[in-house]
Amino acid sequence: MSAVHPLAAGAAEPPARTYDVALLDLDGVVYVGPAAVPGVPDALAAARAAGMRLGYVTNNAARTPEQVAAHLTHLGVAAGPEDVITSSQAAATVVADLLGAGAPVLPVGGPGVSAALAAAGLTVVATAEDQPRAVVQGYGPEVGWAQLAEAVVAIRRGARHVATNTDATIPSPRGVLPGNGALVGVVSAVTGQEPLVTGKPDPAMHAECVRRTGARRPLVVGDRLDTDIEGAARAGAASLLVLTGVTTPATFLSAVPEHRPDLLAQDAGGVLTPHPAVTAVDGGWRCGRWSARVGGADLVLQAGPGDDGDGLDGLRALAIAHWTQHPEGGQPAVVRAGDAEAGAALVRWGLAHD
């Protein structure tokens, strides 16, 4: 039985020692809402002290790089505007290449959208009556009916619809909330046109950050399978999935191949610790003191003696067992507990079944 994914290999050394640059998503990774994820600012400072450089790659188009850097610095994460790549910047670059300098463009979203368009040499207009050649739609908490209506009118008159990203949700302290993708869907449903999407998982954003930092072995750190992890794969970079954002253990287990991360951690502090390997054993897979095997149509998780590591070894073993059984992915994992400890772990991960 051979390993089906790099996750099985783990990382004998902390990633901060073996990857030269971490390309970090922000929402759900460094912060949730206005507050930092507990422990992450200190962890990133330690990673930087270990020689790892940090770049921030976000699909959130609402703010300018200057605003993002100021927020990070306020949270205790040292950052300058040059360390930040936003999906607004990616969209502005694409539109400028398509339409040329000075082309009129209607922004929909927060101030980060307008600022990026202006910085790319495009002409920012306010209404459909200004005859924009493109509409660039990004996230903004104040976006409402009036902006969406203006976008619809412009697109129906021939403007190109460009979306900074199509993330359906964003994480918040109150749970997941509607993201840019939800509002992009409204505009597309009315116009009947699919937008050009420029943010993650398009590799342009990570490629730009690699260019800026001169990274030779980058590690993408993210909380979303369909943007961060797929984007890393499309850019040819390794990835670390964290569970502080929108991805749940159940979603992680059912991931299709392009959404399977190379490493898994509870939070971004995972760049500071080794990651255990998942090894084949008789009848299943073992990681640390945990083992997972196929039992009929289900998986069976079993605890053994020893240290619990970072608390995710059982999930790693389940992932390799499930991905081996379903190499094409997409199937939900049904897991049974082989003992009381395993039952408690499944409850903690939201994987328990009646």
Account of the 3D structure:
- There is one protein chain.
- By secondary structure, the protein is of the alpha/beta class.
- It has 3 domains: 6-59 and 201-272, Rossmann fold, CATH 3.40.50.1000; 88-191, 3-Layer(aba) Sandwich (Rossmann fold); 279-348, GMP Synthetase, Chain A, domain 3.
- It is built from 12 helices and 20 strands.
- The protein has helices at 15-18, 40-49, 65-74, 87-99, 111-119, 145-156, 180-191, 204-213, 225-235, 249-253, 313-325, 340-348; strands spanning 21-24, 31-32, 35-36, 53-58, 84-86, 104-108, 123-124, 134-137, 160-163, 169-170, 177-178, 196-197, 218-222, 238-242, 263-265, 279-281, 284-287, 290-295, 298-303, 335-337.
- Helix 6 (145-156) crosses helix 7 (180-191).
- The mean pLDDT is 93.
Mean pLDDT: 93
Beta-strand residue fraction = 15-25%
Instruction: Enumerate the strands of the largest sheet in spatial order, edge to edge or round the barrel.
Output: 5-4-1-13-14-15
How many H/I helices? 12
Kindly report how far apart the N and C termini lie: 31 Å
> What is the assigned CATH homologous superfamily of the largest domain?
HAD superfamily/HAD-like
- Tell the overall outline: globular
| Proper CATH architecture of the largest domain | 3-Layer(aba) Sandwich
SS elements, strand count? 20
